[in-house]
Every structure is written in C-alpha cells, then in structure tokens.
Amino acid sequence: MATTRINYANKVAGNLWTSQDANQVKDVVNNNADELDALLTRTNQMSQQIFSSQVAQTETTVSIEANVLNVWATPVESLDITLLAGTSGRENEYKLQFTVDGNAFALTLPSGIRWLSEPEWEDGYTYQVSIENNLAVHAGWEAATS
Questions:
Q1: Distance (Å, rounded) from C-alpha 45 to C-alpha 60?
Q2: In this structure, are 40 and 75 located in the same domain?
Q3: Per-residue model confidence (pLDDT) at position 89
Q4: Arithmetic mean of pLDDT, 26-35
Q5: Are both 20 and 60 inside the same structural domain?
Q6: Which of 53, 100, 121, 136 is the most buried (most CB within 10 A)?
Q7: In the chain, at which residue ranges do the beta strands (DSSP E only) sit?
Q8: What is the total count of domains within the chain?
Q9: Domain shared by 84 and 20, yes or no
Q10: 81-133: per-residue pLDDT in tens?
Q11: 7 in a structural domain
Q12: Is-contact 97 69, C-beta < 8 A?
C-alpha cells in the first residue's frame, strides 16, 4: 500500500474547516498507521531472521542454517551436520551447542572443515562449536554441579 497524502490546499485564517477535511485527515492518519504497522511487522520478522538467537534441534542428522545457534537440549551420542548455503556477501557462521552422551561420541561435518585443535569429546560435557569459512573452533564445559 502506498503512503496516502492529504490533498486539500493549505488552510489559512478565515478558511472554513469542514467535516470532509477532518475525515480526510483521519483517513490519512489511519491508512499511514496501518502502513507503519505493516512495516514494523516486516522489520521485526527480518530482525528475527537475521538475529535469531537459537533453534532447538531434536534430530541427530540435520542441515543447519548460518547465523543461528543450534541447540540440542538432550545429550546426544552423535551428530551428522550438513551446512546449508549462507547468504552471499555476508558473514555466515554455523553454531552448535550440545552435550555429549557416551564415550564414543562422533561429530560428522562436511569435508573441508578444519579445526583449530582437534576435539576430544568427553562424556557429559557441553560443547559449543563455531564454523566460519570452513574453520572450526570448539569449547567444552563440565556438567554443572549443584
């Protein structure tokens, strides 16, 4: 919808202010308010896509998008991850967070991914992995104790 404008001539002292003039002002304000609301909704949706903080994952074989944190809430014995194409011309970071279940954990990533240091996965630890430009880093934390 295009922005609506008031089309009557500027009022000067002595000009009659009619109910038609008042209704036109009301209509223009309401129409533009609807347009602004729609624009705000679209902006919020785009912001969520760009800055979406996390995606809950339940499957262990998944394709993930760039620029969101993929979180597995329950411990996993293995993960097989495919990286979906990111946005051209943008920084595309692939992020994972998971807890290892068992001593035989395996993380399968596309070929060509290089690690800063090869991970040694430990049972019960929670890890975060970041991959950008086929370069991966990881960090692990012991389970919290009460």
A1: 28
A2: no
A3: 86
A4: 81
A5: no
A6: 100
A7: 54-57, 61-64, 69-72, 78-83, 93-99, 106-108, 114-115, 126-132, 135-141
A8: 2
A9: no
A10: 999 998 888 889 999 999 999 999 999 999 999 999 999 999 999 999 999 99
A11: no
A12: yes
pLDDT in tens, 45-93: 666 666 658 899 999 999 999 999 999 999 999 999 999 998 888 889 9
Rounded Cα distance between 33 and 83, Å, is 41
Inside any domain, residue 1: no
Note whether 67 and 37 are same-domain residues.
Answer: no
Q: Is 46 in the same domain as 84?
A: no
Q: Which pLDDT does position 34 carry in this prediction?
A: 79
Distance CA 22, CA 103 (A): 75
Question: Residue 136 burial (CB < 10 Å; 0-12/13-18/19+)?
Answer: buried
Tokens 């202010």 belong to residue:
17
**Is residue 77 included in any domain, yes or no?**
yes
Q: Which tokens hold the place of 9? A: 């001539």
47 in the same domain as 26: yes
Q: Are residues 79 and 123 in the same domain?
A: yes
Range of the domain at 32: 12-51
Sequence-distant (6+) residues with CB within 8 A of 22 are: none
Distance, in Å, from the CA atom of 25 to the CA atom of 121, rounded to the nearest integer, reads 66
